[in-house]
Amino acid sequence: MIIPRPAEYTARSGEFVLGPALNLAAGPGAERPADLLAAYLGAGRPRTGAGPAVALRLDDGAHDHPHGYDLLVTPEQVTLTAPSEAGLFNGVQTLRQLLPAQTLSADPAVPADAWRWPACHVRDAPRLAWRGVMLDVARHFMPIEFLYRLADEIALHKINILHLHLTDDQGWRVEIDGLPRLTEIGSTRTASMVGRAGSTVFDGVPHSGYYTRRELADLVEYAAARGVTIVPEIGMPSHTRAALAAYPELGNHPETALPVWTSWGISEDILAVHDEALDFCQHVLSDVMTLFPSRNIHIGGDECRTVQWEDNADARRRIEQEGLPNVSELLGWFLSQMHGYLAEHRRRAVCWNDAVGVGNLDPGVVATAWLKPEHAAEAIARGHQVIVAPHEHTYLDYRQTSHPAEPPSADDRVLTLAEAYSFDPLPTDLSALGVAALTDASGGPGVLGTQAQLWTESAPTTEVVRHLLYPRLCALAEGAWSDERRDPADFARRLQHHLLRLDALGALPAARPDGWDPGAGLSMP
């Protein structure tokens, strides 16, 4: 009943019963996964050195995949080994799912006899190195408490990347040292557009919120203790209207005061390319690096309308200084400057894939191929590592069904559970080119991974976000972790039990519309 489906699972007779105390042995380097497992097994269960043992240890020979693990449960002992801490974290989540669903609840009244594992042998490893989910907290701010819960929920699904979209035209959500107006001004808009982009209706309700440095540092630590890396996104040079509202001198028309944008869609207001704008971006990235230890920093780069550069004196001077043929090459130059700055600090830039189409972008930039499926192969051919995330299959802000109670999406697109489950992040056209999945980020061009996206123009609350996440995130998590084999009936069977886990965690919305069936189209046994 595990999601995502493990590579090898062999049932054995009997079960391991947890007593009132826990004999948990952690070898060198296994301390954090062991502490996490102990927390999942109940705060009231003291540690002891006697009785049936649960042992976690690092072992280079445990698996041939760096993030794989080997788990053996017998009635007398539980042994979890892995070649890395990441592998142990993955195994801990399997142990968590092997418990009865009710044990995932925070309810202290869980019966004592519920704490048991079935005897089994599990040998497992991820298909892709990058298994992520992106949440847009710029369009609608989400409480920090929700992000804590989300980090723990995605860990349950062996998702190891939480990509936070922290800035956009409609709001700046991260505190930056030395630039106080980014949050004093940029974190608040006076209203929000009602409906999709182009609507002329606004709600008149101010929307604001941002995360303090302390809040984000604590969240990063909490997520890391679950094997989850938080990747921040600071969009540039487009989707920067909130930053321009705070510091208009960074734009192409500094004489014009701009409010934080209240509309959805794509603003033509972008950063200038003079030294002051570049210094601003590097200042922000420098501060972000102190908060987020992630090797990867997402710098946006998408949907950059260059009309303001075409008639801007600073842009013309920059084109001449850099020997660029035309204004269209400025975007690749700008993003490569930021990637170079990050590389000096042993980090690297991630961009949305429409930025990768420019010819002068540094191949060290990781491409998130979101727009068209063929962009993944094109980016790999240019030398990039790629996160395969075409919007038709990975955008969870699209409606789950055609049910009238579904939240509206940008263009009423529907992404069903069955369609999410059928998505293969290593498609045939890539395999035909000899492109394989990368087991880590140290290699050359190839598929680094995949991720789900949830934009929040039409998701103003955590309740709506939860409705949109589940159960489709479960399906995408399986495609990121497990091999290309697809068995809808088997997945549907496992999902029925998994939804009990999510319900126990409080991860599902409080209510579903009458007649709503997210599993429509999946074969049931």
UniProtKB/TrEMBL annotation:
<dbReference type="Pfam" id="PF00728">
    <property type="entry name" value="Glyco_hydro_20"/>
</dbReference>
<dbReference type="GO" id="GO:0030203">
    <property type="term" value="P:glycosaminoglycan metabolic process"/>
</dbReference>
<dbReference type="InterPro" id="IPR025705">
    <property type="entry name" value="Beta_hexosaminidase_sua/sub"/>
</dbReference>
<keyword id="KW-0326">Glycosidase</keyword>
<dbReference type="GO" id="GO:0005975">
    <property type="term" value="P:carbohydrate metabolic process"/>
</dbReference>
<keyword id="KW-0378">Hydrolase</keyword>
<comment type="similarity">
    <text>Belongs to the glycosyl hydrolase 20 family.</text>
</comment>
<dbReference type="GO" id="GO:0016020">
    <property type="term" value="C:membrane"/>
</dbReference>
<dbReference type="InterPro" id="IPR017853">
    <property type="entry name" value="GH"/>
</dbReference>
<dbReference type="InterPro" id="IPR029018">
    <property type="entry name" value="Hex-like_dom2"/>
</dbReference>
<dbReference type="InterPro" id="IPR015883">
    <property type="entry name" value="Glyco_hydro_20_cat"/>
</dbReference>
<dbReference type="Pfam" id="PF02838">
    <property type="entry name" value="Glyco_hydro_20b"/>
</dbReference>
<dbReference type="InterPro" id="IPR015882">
    <property type="entry name" value="HEX_bac_N"/>
</dbReference>
<protein>
    <recommendedName>
        <fullName>beta-N-acetylhexosaminidase</fullName>
        <ecNumber>3.2.1.52</ecNumber>
    </recommendedName>
</protein>
<feature type="active site" description="Proton donor">
    <location>
        <position position="303"/>
    </location>
</feature>
<feature type="domain" description="Beta-hexosaminidase bacterial type N-terminal">
    <location>
        <begin position="2"/>
        <end position="125"/>
    </location>
</feature>
<feature type="domain" description="Glycoside hydrolase family 20 catalytic">
    <location>
        <begin position="129"/>
        <end position="483"/>
    </location>
</feature>
<dbReference type="GO" id="GO:0004563">
    <property type="term" value="F:beta-N-acetylhexosaminidase activity"/>
</dbReference>
